[in-house]
Design brief:
The structure holds two protein chains of two kinds. By secondary structure, chain A is of the alpha+beta class. Chain A contains 16 helices and 20 strands. In chain A, strand 5 and strand 6 form a beta hairpin. In chain A, helix 9 crosses helix 11. The longest helix of chain A has 18 residues. The two termini of chain A are about 30 Å apart. In chain B, a hairpin with a 3-residue loop joins strand 11 and strand 12. The chains are: A alpha+beta, B alpha+beta.
Amino acid sequence: MPSALVADLEAALAPARVRAEPLAMTLYGRDASVLEGTPAAVCFPESTAEVQAAVRIARAHGHPIVPRGSGTGLAGGAVPVGDPVVIVTTRMNRILDFDVEDRMAWVEPGVLNLDLSRAVAHLGLHFAPDPSSQQSCSVGGNVANNSGGPHCLAYGVTSAHVLAIEVVLPDGSLAMLGGLDPDPPGYDLRGLFVGSEGTMGIATRIAVRLTPVPSTVRTLLADFTSVEDAAAAVSGIIAAGIVPAALEMMDAEITKAVEAYVHAGFPLDAAAILLVEVDGRPAGTEADAAAVADVCRANGARTIRVAADLTERALLWKGRKSAFGAIARIAPNYYLHDTVVPRTRLVEVMNKVYEIGARHRLVMMNVFHAGDGNLHPLIVFDRREPGAMERVHAAGTEILEACIAVGGVLSGEHGIGLEKRDYMSLLFGPDDLDAQARAREVFDPDGVCNPAKVLPAGARCGDLQRVPEGAWI
Amino acid sequence: MDLTAFAAEVGADGPVVPVGSRTQWDVGGAPDPDAREVKAPSGIVAYEPAEMTVRVRAGTTMAELDAALTEHGQMVPLDPRSADATVGGVLAVGQSGLRRLRYGPVRDTLLEARFVTADGRLVKAGGPVVKNVSGFDLCRLLVGSLGTIGVLAEVVLRVQPTPKASKWYRREGLVDHRTLHRPSAVLWDGGTSWVLLEGHPVDIALGWDEVEGPPALPRYRRSLRPSKLPMLTGRFVAELGVGTVHLHDPPPLAAPDRPDLHARVKELFDPTGRLNPGRRVA
């Protein structure tokens, strides 16, 4: 006998698109983080009207809601807390319209990031934000998390590529935020919604900006005998007035893991490698590529390889973007961190990360967006090993504290979600958090939209957000 | 004056109107004449060229900021109409400069803001690094908010390298901005087009007439979907590819979708309506 909640959802959507059996509860109780929860029900709307219906039914039965895209989030943003109805947008995956003249497209939230770029490639356009999970992450998820990616160094993160968002609010009503003109009237609610991690409503249609594919691209791989040299090269490139399209660093451990998997010819004895991409018009691109090579050599690069063609370029990027898949050969679990530190403190923080790893007897790898100081320390471990999880968490906390101590922040791309919620007070004081809680209240006065995420309990005076018993945090 | 003293000056009682250099004083309507004027402190607090960020007090003029950045071959592409404009004023008004086509709008430049709330508290939003998703993006809410939900005191801005070369060109007729590579600006007045290209000297060479700079811009602005611009008639200067149109007459007032949400922003951040009364964001 299905519950009244499930029966109502089935009546409003379709029985096949509502799930409440144990397998679904387990599957949709997790995202790509190490956290778990349990939903009250999971549903798969196919239209804005169905999203509205699902929201209203959940509310009528006293359940909160949790929006979910592909579930690739790394901070527990889509992990159900508070017995919610999980509203999954993966079936809303149509590209509704693209406009070549305005270089924009209207898409549904479930469209996969890479599918969007592939769909407009024949127009010489692409969607610039390129998270490493772009084969599986959704544009709706990108909006929720203000996702980045290697090429955001020059092109900007998701927020710079979203023009307008149709949102279903927690009361089931519709709102259009932003617009297709440059300065829509009112406060920038679109800018506030991007990166709100599902706490302000559910995006049901998104107008994205499309970016021309550059005419000339040069991809360079430089390898170094020390992390310090590689980091000095990063600073040198920026100091030379060059903002590469992408500037990535991989340390020795991750390079070995990736090479064993993709066979791209990454040097196995390097302490660190830099993957640098410059693009633009021919003269400027060649000049930038030459300048990048000079800076790398001046900072002790052993070899500099320039991708000869598209195939080689794709192979180098495959190496970088499949890093997290490659480490499955080493251990079954990984815990991926995401912080940003001032560029000038990169080496100091990296050495600190290695030191923390050694002290906790953990394998620590680094693959990250060096150009914007966005570190991704990666702890590889086996969950089945007694005490492993505790050591991983202890090391993670120390890494965050070290980053914030040098003027860094909690997250550059992955968001706060549940994972880092209780660290927010390392970065923000009570008055700062109160201001953020007010912003959330604009959209969700009752705190029913992805409750218990982003802001710690008590962020707003009179805030009674409690994590329910049994939630695994 | 330090930030704490400025927060105390804004205080928690009575209407206040934040003042920069009054270079865009006509935006958003007339402020309450009885409101007390408050001026944010000025000065560059920290500038590390290698970080490509600068921390600056909101009362600093753009001229002063530009001078400090130029020394290191860097810039903040806000391009206000007047170099006398203050950083806080440019952000609070939120009108982007002429190079928006390439560098994006004002709101993409603000990384961290310290602002004074309606009850006189000093609050931090965002963070001092070029990439940050720690918490909600209040910085974007503040840009263009005309000081109606908080008074900017100190900000961290994203800095860009100054392009190696830049050239303005003029050409008769409508130039399709999409045929150019990352132009910084493409303007059109219904008859003539002006193009700003920046970058490597070889890349920005065009066989068109070189000119000193853009045409004089009319005083008012209107925001339109970019593809609508070629249909414009009358006297105007339009930013092609962006959608901003510069006009001689005030444009019709536009109302946002769901004005109730915008009103809630004001209510939640300024329940007594003491911040810049008289000025309208929407």
